[in-house]
Amino acid sequence: MSTGSSSAPPQRPLRVVLFPWLAFGHLLPHLELAERLASRGHRVTLVSTPGNVARLPPPRPAARVDLVSLPLPRVDGLPDGAESTNSIPHDKHALLFRAFDGLAAPFAEFLHAACADERRRPDWILVDVFHHWAAAAAAEHKVPLAVYLPSAAALARDPAAAVPRYESERGKAQYGSDHGGMSIFQRFFFVLERCTLAAMRSCVEWEPEFFPQVAPRFRKPVVPLGLLPPSPDGGRGVNGEDATMRWLDAQPAGSALYVALGSEAPLPVEQVHELALGLELAGTRFLWALRKPDGGGELLPPGFQERTRGRGLVAMGWVPQVSILGHGAVGGFLTHCGQSSFVEGLLFGRPLVLLPIFGDQGSNARLLEKKKVGLQVARDEDDGSFDRHGVVKAVRAVMVDEETRGVYVANALEAQKIVADMELHDRYIDEFVEELRLHAADGNSATGTVSAQAEA
């Protein structure tokens, strides 16, 4: 009997470059993915601009991620220092796309230098759907490209879904209009056509109806990343002197509604006022992380903070969202339905009040409502506006009425079993790494073409 070992030699670590779109709703999930890959011993580089890199939370000590800054070119009309959607009003996004496309040459130089050294040559580049010039650079250097996709609900077909008129019209305007010389639709299909595979922040356990539709529709391998939930403790430490946490410490268990509409989705001031008055009339305790709205004007209705003092706190600027959602005083979450936000809410089993604003948030909200983990605020079919009475109805259904709250809490806790299953999501990252190795071994060219039906 042989005593020698027949085990295969260890595989060398992969070298992966991640380059997200210039929005923190994209940067932070990419950082989470980068850290998960790096913690497995892979060499990971995250590329962005100096201002965005400076604003990222420091990578966790156990996960070494190399951060590379490429200077964002100046564009007339774009405010100085504006390097992300967080820094500009929505009507200046086309200017940010124009500046973003100016990163084509610096990225090509970065990739050329990396590929000239076999010790640094990337095995993969992973980008968002907007980076048409990164796809061209990857093809020139024969580095396989992966494209990052969010939830399947935004890309699959749901015949039963009733998409509001305002959302459909906004979507056509947002995705079909010129953004730096190309529409978002054109960017999406250009990158998808040239990628080897798509990596989706989802899984069949979360979207059993929609996830299996995506690969056949776009005729590309779609590899699940899992939901990339953050560490339940926030993972990066929170100052115990944070005012929001001190306020929550003084509230009864499960009594407070956390309100946050993300850093990328400001409301017009009149809608902020309706939301404020709805929170006031609903009568629940609330902690509101408020961003300055588009268009200027008085931020809150006159006398609002005085009338709600003692049961409500409005916090301007950054707040420790994961730690807030994990606090025992929080009993629900009013959210814009950005993917990172609802994942963080359901990580702790919080029922949701749903107030989608743009992009894939509408399809996310419909998916969450279908799962009965929350209720949407009623909207005007034509312009998408809401009023205080719609806010009151949704907040009270989720936070106050025992019968309806019981349903939403039970389903949120059921969803938590998937979202908080760290073994499941770790397994998806391991399988993603194996898919990267497999496709790289099969050849570096893109496989398949995007179907004409997908473009329809």
Number of strands: 15
Radius of gyration: 22 Å
The chain-level structural class is alpha/beta
Major sheet characteristics: 7 strands, parallel
Helix content: 40-55%
Which runs of at least 5 residues are low in confidence (pLDDT < 50)?
A: 1-6, 444-456
Proportion of strand residues: 5-15%
End-to-end C-alpha gap: 63 Å
Integer average pLDDT: 89
Number of DSSP helical runs: 18
Strand order of the largest sheet: 3-2-1-4-5-8-9
Net shape:
globular
Describe the protein's architecture and organization.
The protein is α/β, with parallel strands linked by helices and 456 residues long. The chain is 41% helix and 14% strand. Strands 3-2-1-4-5-8-9 form a seven-stranded parallel β-sheet, with helices on both faces. Strands 12-11-10-13-14-15 form a six-stranded parallel β-sheet, sandwiched between helices. It has a two-stranded antiparallel ribbon with strand order 6-7. Strand 10, helix 10 and strand 11 form a beta-alpha-beta unit.
Key features?
glycosyltransferase, glycosyltransferase activity, 15 strands, alpha/beta, seven-stranded parallel β-sheet, six-stranded parallel β-sheet, 456 residues
